[in-house]
Design a protein that fits this description.
Elements: E1 5-9, H1 16-29, E2 37-41, H2 47-53, E3 59-63, H3 80-85, E4 90-93, H4 96-101, H5 106-119, E5 122-127, H6 131-135, H7 139-159, E6 163-166, H8 180-193, E7 203-206, H9 211-218, E8 225-228, H10 235-245
Parallel strand pairs: 1-2, 1-8, 2-3, 3-4, 4-5, 5-6, 6-7, 7-8
The chain binds 2-phosphoglycolic acid (PGA).
């Protein structure tokens, strides 16, 4: 019922030339009929290039953030409509790096989720605990709080219009992935919080997913795919993770 989904988060990486190479490599490697939904999220300046180079493939694309506002005097911000104009399907919301470095709060993230969903983008809501929070056994509290902030704003049905990505902060970019069992436990909890909508909401795992670790993660009952950072910058590695989700 839930389609396996793999989304690449390029973060602030790659030049224009590297972007073109990477997109071409992905486009060549992912044609034909596939069970898995695949998407990449390049930096804003390269989204138009993604639209051009992914046209012949089955790969969707999206942005890494958006403004909570529809339009207006918001220097440096990018609206949902602008992303839709470029052909984006997805947008990441509440990535831990934005929570940490840009001070994004649960409230702001809920507003962004709503702004994206209202326009028909698929928001990918990132949630996850820090190492300190895990060690203090607060994982469920933190993930529950992050989820409920969005549920309170858009309702359970609203959240189900998006995708949830569980990304333990201590596993992001560290090479230290959660074990499949650890991730499964939190995914099952997320589904529980989503109540009746949990059954058909895709819940992805993120945090140092590599070609070698992907299959064991995807074998877990409640892990529907992955949000991939570092390994999404190499076409070969990213495609291997996509194949593991099939
Ligand atoms: P990583 O990043 O795969 O490099 O750990 C994941 C993410 O931040 O989405």
């Amino acid at each position: 019922m839930r389609r396996p989904t793999v989304i690449g988060n390029w973060k602030m990486n790659a030049s224009f030339a590297q972007t073109a190479d990477l997109l071409a490599g992905l486009s060549e490697g992912w044609t034909g009929v596939h069970q898995a939904e695949v998407a990449v999220c390049p930096p804003y300046p390269y989204l138009a290039k993604a639209a051009e180079l992914l046209e012949q493939s089955n790969i969707a694309f999206g942005a890494q953030d958006l403004s909570q506002h529809a339009s207006g005097a918001y220097t440096g911000q990018v609206s949902a409509d602008m992303l839709l104009d470029l052909g984006c399907k997805y947008v990441l919301v509440g990535h831990s790096e934005r929570r940490e470095y840009q001070g994004e709060t649960d409230t702001l993230i809920a507003e962004k989720f709503e702004a994206a969903a209202k326009k028909g983008l698929v928001p990918v809501l990132c949630v996850g605990e820090t190492l300190e929070e895990r060690e203090a056994e607060k994982t469920f509290d933190v993930v529950g709080r992050q989820l409920r902030a969005v549920i309170e704003r858009v309702g359970l049905e609203g959240v189900a219009k998006g995708v949830v990505a569980y990304e333990p902060v201590w596993a992001i970019g560290t090479g230290r992935s959660a074990t499949p069992e650890m991730a499964q436990e939190v995914h099952a909890y997320i589904r529980e919080v989503l109540g009746p909508e949990g059954e058909h909401t895709a819940v992805l795992y993120g945090g140092s997913v590599k070609p070698e670790s992907a299959a064991a993660l995807f074998a877990q009952q409640d892990i529907d795919g992955a949000l991939v950072g570092g390994a999404s910058l190499k076409a070969e590695d990213f495609l291997a993770i996509c194949r593991a989700a099939e």
